Batch of 2 targets.
Target 1
Amino acid sequence: MITAEMVNGIVRFQANGLPVVSLYCRVDPGASQREVRARVDSLLDQIRPLAKDRALDHRYRLSVRADIERIKDALGSERWRPGTVAVFSCSGRGLYEEIPLPRRVREQVMVDATPLARPMLAVLGEYSRACVLVINREAAPVWEMYQDEMREVETVTDPLRKAANTGTRAEDRIQNRVDEQAKRHFRRVASMVGQLLRADGYDVLVVGGHEYELADFLRLLPHELRGRVAGTFRADPVATPVAEIRSSAEGVMRHYQREQDQRLVAHVLELAAAGGLAAVGPPDCLWAGSMSAIDTLLVRDGVTLVGVVCDESGWLAASGDICPVCGKPTRYAPDVLDELAAAVIETGGSPRQIAADLMPCEYPTAAQLRFPPPPREAGPREARPREAGDSQP
Ligand SMILES: [Zn+2]
């Protein structure tokens, strides 16, 4: 499972003068291990000269050489899931991490002073990391949930201490005392969760419990934490099996994610309709992307579009042999929307894949912009994007 510690460890990694190798390799569905190995090998070819370059510091060369060996070794022993695998290695400082990404990312390899984490973060950013908590008056186990995986983080327990039964209104006093203890427990849990959310990169909180206790607990949450509750479900920290807690929490997250996506789509389409900073449809989105104007790109799940890319100026379009921006010949791209997503990441924006039923068919792409791009001349024929279910032309 990809944990917050792993991701934070990469982002905050200090190489102190040594090089970090970052490699993104695609794993196509059904690809054999040999095919993946060939792809990685050809990516590594791009950095092999660095391991031999006498102009570079000896320790630098040694580290790169060890990174190349390590990545090659890993390939011999592992089988990666379809999508992309991101590898970060700095042998001289003991870093080696493989992060499987659930979708395709542009292939690349880079040697730099810091890890190339941005493409990884952009993909991971499409999935919320949830802190799942199940609470009653005495116990509160906490899990980290991410991309359908869940692991226990910690448990806060405050066993109720029963007071000795003295005096006439003992029952009431015991009840008050128990309430006080439960309140203290809820506060302790709230502060622990607050710390987790601040420090470990959680996006949202999912809370399970008995209805009457949930209400008390949520009331005690500080305002900013309450705003991050994605949803609640019924459960008991002791009696409910973990598998059931997990499936309830997943249900809450699915619902939450869909609502977020729906809101985002509505927002961008409204913005476009009002003539605001937005672009809809591939021609305008490709043009805005070419001008580095995209802040958030929405792509309907399963849509691909054949097109062209100019590697010189970053111009993207559905067709054209010569780039109108710089006059250089273009390169064929089997899926120019994929190139667009990569370009958006590189210019600091974020691409999001949206469930097909949440995005209107007539707009397979939409984007929120940072600034209005210069006007675009409409091409002679604008290609129709292909949906996942379409038959081959
Ligand atoms: Zn160009």
Target 2
Amino acid sequence: MSSRPQPEEMPCNELVELVTDYIEGRLPPRDVKRFEDHLEICDGCRTYLDQMRETIGALGHLPEKSITPEARDRLLEAFRTWKWRE
Ligand SMILES: [Zn+2]
């Protein structure tokens, strides 16, 4: 196994925060690159990504506990706007 030095290496905790954006295709290309580079070198995060994908696939949405307060606020905002428009 050769390991390439990564100037912008993504730490595990950042990957965990970005995983939902990655799955939903909302990550900027630059971060997608760093995300995937990290997956190549980190078994733990690959497993985490797989589990998240399975969970989302099974439930059709994210489990509440995995949503950050910011993401939850965005969702609530979206739901509110949506309701008012109905
Ligand atoms: Zn990792």
